[in-house]
Amino acid sequence: MTSAQDERERQVLDRIDRARRRRPRVREERITMSHGAGGKATRTLIEAVFLGAFGNPLLEPLEDAASLVLDQARVALTTDSYVVSPLFFPGGDIGDLAVNGTVNDLSVAGATPMYLTAAFILEEGFPVADLVRVTSSMRAAAATAGVQIVTGDTKVVQRGKADGCYINTAGVGLLAAPAPLGVALARPGDAIVVSGPIGDHGITIMLARGELGIEADVRSDTAPLNGLTACLLEAVPGVRAMRDATRGGVATILNEIATSADVGVLVREDSVPVRPAVRGACELLGIDPLYVACEGRMIAVVPGADAERAIAALRGHPLGADAAVIGHVTDDQPGLVQLKTSFGGTRIVDMLVGDPLPRIC
Amino acid sequence: MTSAQDERERQVLDRIDRARRRRPRVREERITMSHGAGGKATRTLIEAVFLGAFGNPLLEPLEDAASLVLDQARVALTTDSYVVSPLFFPGGDIGDLAVNGTVNDLSVAGATPMYLTAAFILEEGFPVADLVRVTSSMRAAAATAGVQIVTGDTKVVQRGKADGCYINTAGVGLLAAPAPLGVALARPGDAIVVSGPIGDHGITIMLARGELGIEADVRSDTAPLNGLTACLLEAVPGVRAMRDATRGGVATILNEIATSADVGVLVREDSVPVRPAVRGACELLGIDPLYVACEGRMIAVVPGADAERAIAALRGHPLGADAAVIGHVTDDQPGLVQLKTSFGGTRIVDMLVGDPLPRIC
Fold this sequence. Notes:
The structure is a homodimer.
Chain A: H1 3-21, H2 40-54, E1 66-70, E2 73-82, E3 88-89, E4 92-93, H3 94-108, E5 111-123, H4 128-145, E6 148-157, E7 165-175, E8 191-194, H5 200-208, H6 226-235, E9 241-244, H7 249-261, E10 264-268, H8 276-285, E11 298-302, H9 307-315, E12 324-330, E13 337-340, E14 346-348
Parallel strand pairs in A: 5-6, 10-13
Antiparallel strand pairs in A: 1-2, 2-7, 3-4, 5-7, 8-11, 8-12, 9-11, 10-12, 13-14
Helix pairs in contact in A: 3-4, 3-6, 6-9
């Protein structure tokens, strides 16, 4: 191992130690929707309850996938349950979401996704034709991503539970690069890059529920990111971290960078790509697109000197055509994310609080 | 690879081909509780829908875990969701069930369980104290089994869904033995062994619901089987197959042996160990203990000449103290399981039909 790698690993362990010392407590006596929204309450629940119970050095980085050594193989392992409502929406359904989401968690960990598990919790009365439709989407998504679904499970719960169908996928991938990736490795001067327009998935789900009376020409961005992450890693081997911007949106990832690495983050609002239809819907709903989930977009932290090369690499892939540098890591105000607004002001971007968009994945 | 291994693998592929040709169809238009009971309807759903969509040589053996090669490492991968109701019951709770169940699926695949994922679907309003209790059980079970929980996920669904808490665990283990295991490898003359008294878990759950007005001194047998399977594999390297007898019970596994290997199975009723309290409850409920789930028992198929050595190895472990040979594989009536009853008659033991014991794991 090189001394640069030693240094990186030591930094990761330092962050973990620091996080351990400031472990929070859950103040609520009962679970709320916010605990599942991917923002501040989810983070508190994870740190207080799950790290409290399971805490170990492999879990504690709290990245999208754990990095393991199995025999001689370096392997990434991840899991996600999908409870999106509705099950079918413009641009996708729970099936391709369940494949792409787990493929993406492996991809942003720097792994080549290989094998997936698929576990179904079905509601009594769920149409078999819908299950066939969902599994067909999963097959197609797995084929696109180049992964195989190799084992599974089926449970059935009584009518009224489970909203038709919940799916869990776990995934294993091969880690080729010896250098660890992680938001804790961000350092001042790094550039923060987004791979494309944000918020398409979350807004699509909100509108697909039909409760808001808003129509817009918007589709989920659900897609497998493994091709894109491979392009970026090849062009910029020094990538510090990649994250897919799902629940909690880009704002939550920016806060995880600031908190985990103990750095400041400064983002320019007008550099963040947002489609006009998504921006319009967000304005009508009073939601900041920075908090709206994507399912086929990633944030990458790269050394400042590599920013142009990173953007060129991303734009060379169909899923990264609109990639942009949205901000930088600073040594100012460690732990805080600041946004330079289009009007020239500056405001603090906190983690997602509450749950404006429940059940989006 | 030795020619004996070649022969085994060819046999497995033959079975898969045969299964593919007789793939059934789901007749129901909607999912029923039976589709989750682990018996005949579950099997049909898996073969018709899931194999139809995902079919690949790694999935198709339909064993408890998939066997993969990652880089040079031989790895087993499995997943299970847990929807047991009630969440807490004599002898355990959904937490240790979720760890032990997945540890056991890896163990009976011949793997050394290493790493688990943990994904929670929580109901809005679920007491945080209950979540702490469940995660504490998971920690204790993981420590007992010698595995680490290395990555996870949390989703929250609205009040009225998810019965408090559903848990999915996926697990990876290392496969040391080069010989494949599988019920398709059973052959006439093999002995069928059970590691202990059956039905404790299923009856415990039924009674814990308090709807039947029956009381009995019975506790779940939830336990990690990795120590026991390691003992058996060391003593009898020629083990053909191991299965943990969960949903669908011992009867379903016996049928999977008969169907997958295209052999007959003959079991002697009075050699099947059943605790008096479980037998009594089964009689009151009109249920055959052969269909009642265990969560810490396994069935093993071993060459007939190794039966005594297998029993001695199992009895040398605390979880196998009451291990017994319950029957044999025959070349009579391929595909059928027959039971010699205590009264001297013979009856056919079918796969579980319907769902007499919903939500037991």
